[in-house]
Amino acid sequence: MEIKVLGTVSPYCKGVKNCSGFLVTEGKEKVLLDCGNGSTCQMCMPEDLENLTIVISHLHKDHYGDLLSIAYASYVYHKLGCLDKKVTVYLPKPGFIKEEEGKTPNTKKTKEESESEIMDYNFLTHLGKEQYLKFKTYDDSSKIQVGEMQLTFSKNPHPINTYATKIITEKESIVYTSDTGFEKNTIETFARGVNLLICESTFIRGQQKKEDFHLYAYEAGKIAKKANAKQLVLTHFWPELDKSLYVEEAKEEFSNTIVAQEGQYLKIKR
Ligand SMILES: [Zn+2]
Ligand SMILES: [Zn+2]
């Protein structure tokens, strides 16, 4: 697998830093994990639209903002005869969550959060005719095969339906966590022994988590250690903070840690 970093910050872009996006290529097939604001700046068009499957981890705007760019680009390139196949977009099944005891981490959505998620879902799936996309939904019971890549999902503690994605090929495995709280996270089992763990680390010590919906860098390190991952790649930073602060903190727990940088290709250690 080849993994290109498209975006690493939240909740807005700054300079060359874009919101979340990781483009995974295996053979002719591509999987784009999240499509945050600005992330398409790092894509090669129209080539990257060919055989493209997009998986949106959750319907927070820092993770899907650039779907509008993809929608219009796919329409334009299709009209020009450069794109034959629709871009497939997987969105999490929206809706009010019923607590399933013992099965999923407890995602406590308020009524407003549920309504907002449904409105965003309806907005994205009703973009009008100027797009060349095919929408599908998924949840943590889904198994999606994209060429040689097998995708599975695990639900995170976060205010709306949010999934970590695991991609496995014959030789390699990666997990992209997306947004997750620390207590009740299931990443450490889901990512057991992976070659590469791309993990959110929104906070550093000294910053206040109001609620446990994101990780401190040292918590990302703890998860990588417990999961026995081969390598940890940190992402989902505050645009104003120096990335080196995150890596120093995570290395207290897990030494084989790097930070994701826009435009970088991640090497998979076996
Ligand atoms: Zn989020
Ligand atoms: Zn986010």
Describe the structure in your own words:
By secondary structure, the protein is an alpha/beta fold. The protein is built from 6 helices and 14 strands. It has helices at residues 61-64, 67-79, 111-124, 187-190, 217-227, 243-251; strands at residues 2-7, 21-26, 29-33, 52-55, 87-92, 133-138, 143-146, 149-155, 163-168, 173-176, 196-200, 232-235, 257-259, 265-266. It has a 7-stranded mixed sheet. It is globular and about 50 Å long. 48% of the residues are buried. The model is unreliable at 98-106 (pLDDT under 50). The structure holds zinc ion (2 copies).
In one word, what is the shape?
A: globular
Figure out the total of helices: 6
Read across the widest sheet, the strand sequence of neighbours is: 6-5-4-3-2-1-14
Give, in order, the helices and strands.
EEEEHHEHEEEEEHEHEHEE
Tell me the fraction of residues in β-strands, as a range.
25-35%
* Alpha carbon gap, first and last residue: 12 Å
Helix content: 10-25%
Average pLDDT figure:
94
